[in-house]
Amino acid sequence: MSDPMRIRAQVQGSGAVVRVLMSHEMETGQRKHAAGKTIPAWHITDVTATLNGKPVFTAEWGPAVAKNPFLQFTVKGAKAGDRIAISWKDNHGDTRTDEATVA
To answer: Which of 10, 25, 78, 79 is the most buried (most CB within 10 A)?
Structure first.
């Protein structure tokens, strides 16, 4: 399993700014290693964010997203103490979910 995501959620105005750093190799399937063989594609395909269990953000990603992707978005109506959960799934079927509390 991959390393935990680093999630920071801070109240700003009438909502919260959420910043997420995901640990993932994000291979496109087009690079070759030293022996000349193609490195198989391995990238995040789906990202979901929830606020207190209710979905607030979904995205479909592909191989063009950089290694260890950074994501930032704003959630209206979030307040201190609310729980933000971020989940991703990759093209190999691996998943990861991490949570943070809005500060």
So the answer is: 78
